[in-house]
Amino acid sequence: MTENQTIRVEQKGHIATLLLNRPEKHNAMRFLFFEEMARQFRLFDRDPSVYAVVIRGEGKSFTVGLDLPEAAEGLLGDGTGAAARENLRARIMELQDGFNQIEKCRKPVIAAAHGYCIGGGIDLMSACDIRLASRDTIFSIRETRIAIVADVGTLQRLPHIIGQGWYRELALTGRDFSAEDALKMGFITHLCDTREELYLQADKIAQEIAACATLTVQGVKDVMNFSRDHGVYPGLEYVAQKNAAAVMSDDLNEAFTAFLEKRPPQFTGN
Length: 270
Prior knowledge:
- The protein is an alpha/beta fold.
- It is 52% helix and 15% strand.
- The two termini are 28 Å apart.
């Protein structure tokens, strides 16, 4: 297996923790980072021992976004001809895949941010299912201020999370916003006073998810994403078909039996 250079993975029980692991650079995102994220989330998706994933940042910040010196050389260093532009388009789509795989992963993903969460950090968090932050977190869709149209997912995913009003103001101004603002607009669901509290809360939510029937949880994430992208009525048809195919499971029988016996269910993922 290829060893990651920009991220580190730890697993305790059924909870995997993915750590952004360039603390000396405030977890600035190299091109390699996006490749490693895509590969790692494909692995999480296929790993039956992983029920939920928590993403955290090592060091003083969650992430300051794209590694700009590397980006300037790698994205803009090939000239302006047709071939260079096509190469740039292909490279941007490769970067997008790093976060697309978070959203496509069947396992719920929780992001826990602290310090700076800038640019690509918003892209990353927008691809996650649940978002938390410590009170010191500073957010920004910073690309607007450096003459770049954010292109790794923020402009596509964020309006579904916080609505058009806040989304347009923040994307068009590129201004900083606080963790308190993020809570008020619904970008995060929990605001924690310290990093210790933040990580405890993220783990608590992950454990609550892991205590549910894992195939059901994965089905819920699938239906939520499908319904967001296709609308109410296609979503209703999709979930009807999904439940018709999967509802009679060992875990459902166990849930009913545990209820009648007044005990916690012991799910097996079958």
